[in-house]
């Protein structure tokens, strides 16, 4: 399928030409984009607006795992694990160019730990059933070191190997945006919402107002139903109008979001060689530690730190960086230091839980459920928060069913996206114009690879992970407008090596400017990248 042009002027003209949409979605993260796909597949007239860029917030800052949740299994959240394991299989089937199965090794330094966690992972297999990716296996000491050569061998007695999945979160968000667009939805980034429209007399929400950050143009969008899918910012949208949650008497009931900060560090692959990931199910402070191979590097994480404030660019605390490095040093044969970190980033999880009292930090969030919540205000606004990437599709389906039951739109109860392949999903063949299997930097393009090969600069590589053609393709077909859009989410270089991203930024800016004829915001990116660079 030929990629769809994402010319911004044409998108703006299309929005202005529609008198009324069936559904308007605020927020271009996993939940909002998943809902846009579900609604568009149903044939609804859909518009989605994102204040910054798709997956700019939480949805680009995950551990890149498609998983049922071993930690949630230990917490007894069996329904959540069961649902996530089935959604894991669905995602791997519908986006094979962006998600794949991955073996994990859990090293054991006590026999009782090997037995305890091994039996728990056998239950993980049982819950997965036919959706399982591979059997859990008990490993001897020698087998553990063979599968995980980067593991510390002192006092090692054996291990357990199990299977989960891995994906590229930001590019999956982009695939969702393009899938929704292919089914007729209008999706546009860099379009912050400035207010909610309400119908005269009834007070019902009947749309939204927003502003194009490039031109300053203000738009008023009318819609029969509005979904607030803004994650940790969900209360800010609700506060734009006096809302009441159905069946309550309080004005503007908070959505009870408990932001939790997760930090990840990136180090060279030599610290954890091979294609097998590491899982430590319980560190000294009760968290989970991962060492995950990803795009030629290794991700170390993550923290689970309660937060009072929400920012678009949350910063890793020195204590969080030290915690990850200290815990990694206990299990990796070669302990990483701050000097070895090539990129560090933080994200905020929109956990569904109670608010802390003013001026007080909320309690520990490790045990807060990752299930999602959906609320309908008496003015008709739908707000959704919580959940995790693996279950994004189920969350979207639930949103549509809440809309149906509230009789805001006429819908069927059918689950319409379980077999909907995402943009680029079918693996290209030689008949598509490819003469060899796709290399790592190109594999994420899937069926777009032939079109990419026709772009100017296809053989001009700015970096082993980035070509000139990729930048031009992102501007023409992937909604990229700024250097940050390109180097943080169309390509993941900022998240892998912040210094390299900084060096490439001027070249990327020049290419983007010729493609978009707008300011690619180079200075803003260079300032942003400093927060991702090696911690001192």
Helix/strand-derived category reads alpha+beta
What's the CATH first level of the largest domain?
Alpha Beta
> What is the helical fraction, as a range of percent?
25-40%
Question: What amount of the residues lies in strands?
Answer: 15-25%
- Give Rg in angstroms: 23 Å
Number of helices: 17
Task: Give me the CATH fold name of the largest domain.
Answer: FAD/NAD(P)-binding domain
Average pLDDT metric = 90
CATH level 4 superfamily of the largest domain: FAD/NAD(P)-binding domain
- Total count of strands: 20
CATH architecture of the largest domain: 3-Layer(bba) Sandwich
C-alpha termini separation? 47 Å
C-alpha geometry: globular
Q: Main β-sheet: number of strands, strand sense, barrel status?
A: 10 strands, mixed
Provide the number of structural domains.
Answer: 3
Low-confidence stretches: 243-255, 354-370, 430-437
């Amino acid at each position: 399928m030929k990629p769809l042009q994402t010319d911004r002027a044409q998108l703006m003209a299309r929005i202005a030409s529609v008198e009324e949409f069936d559904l308007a979605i605020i927020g271009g993260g996993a939940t909002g984009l998943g809902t846009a796909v579900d609604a568009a597949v149903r044939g609804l007239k859909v518009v989605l607006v994102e204040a910054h860029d798709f997956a700019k917030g939480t949805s680009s800052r995950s551990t890149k795992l498609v998983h049922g949740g071993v930690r949630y299994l230990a917490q007894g959240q069996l329904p959540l694990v069961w649902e996530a394991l089935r959604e894991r299989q669905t995602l791997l089937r519908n986006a094979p160019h962006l998600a794949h199965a991955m073996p994990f090794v859990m090293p054991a330094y006590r026999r009782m730990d090997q037995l305890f966690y091994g039996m728990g992972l056998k239950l993980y297999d049982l819950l997965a059933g036919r959706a399982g990716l591979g059997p859990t296996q008990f490993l001897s000491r020698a087998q553990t070191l063979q599968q995980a050569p980067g593991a510390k061998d002192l006092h090692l007695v054996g291990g357990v190997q199990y299977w989960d999945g891995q994906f590229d979160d930001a590019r999956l968000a982009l695939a969702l945006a393009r899938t929704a667009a292919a089914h007729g939805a209008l999706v546009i980034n860099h379009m912050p919402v400035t207010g909610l429209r309400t119908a005269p007399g009834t007070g019902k929400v009947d749309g939204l107002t927003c502003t194009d950050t490039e031109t300053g143009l203000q738009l008023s969008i009318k819609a029969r139903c509005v979904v607030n899918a803004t994650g940790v910012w969900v209360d800010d949208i609700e506060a734009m109008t006096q809302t009441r949650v159905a069946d309550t008497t309080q004005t503007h009931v908070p959505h009870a979001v408990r932001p939790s900060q997760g930090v990840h560090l990136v180090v060279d692959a030599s610290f954890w060689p091979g294609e097998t990931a590491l899982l430590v199910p319980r560190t000294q402070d009760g968290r989970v530690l991962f060492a995950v191979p990803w795009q030629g590097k290794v991700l170390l994480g993550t923290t689970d730190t309660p937060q009072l404030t929400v920012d678009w660019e949350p910063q890793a605390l020195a204590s969080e960086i030290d915690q990850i490095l200290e815990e990694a040093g206990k299990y990796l044969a070669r302990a990483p230091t701050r000097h070895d970190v090539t990129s560090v980033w933080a994200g905020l999880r929109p956990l569904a839980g109670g608010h802390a009292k003013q001026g007080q930090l909320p309690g520990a969030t490790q045990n807060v459920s990752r299930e999602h919540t959906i609320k309908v205000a008496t003015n008709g606004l739908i707000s959704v928060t919580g959940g995790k990437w693996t279950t994004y599709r189920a969350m979207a389906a639930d949103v549509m069913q809440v809309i149906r039951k509230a009789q805001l739109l006429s819908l069927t109860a059918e689950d319409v996206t379980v077999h909907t392949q995402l943009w680029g999903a079918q693996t290209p063949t030689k008949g598509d114009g490819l003469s060899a299997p796709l290399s790592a930097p190109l594999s994420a393009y899937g069926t777009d690879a032939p079109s990419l090969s026709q772009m100017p600069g296809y053989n001009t590589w700015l970096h082993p992970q980035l070509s000139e053609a990729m930048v031009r393709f992102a501007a023409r077909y992937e909604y990229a407008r700024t250097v940050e859009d390109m180097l943080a989410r169309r390509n993941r270089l900022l998240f892998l090596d912040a210094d390299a991203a900084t060096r490439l930024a001027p070249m990327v800016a020049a290419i983007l400017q010729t493609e978009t004829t707008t300011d690619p915001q180079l200075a803003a990116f260079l300032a942003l990248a400093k927060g991702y660079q090696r911690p001192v």
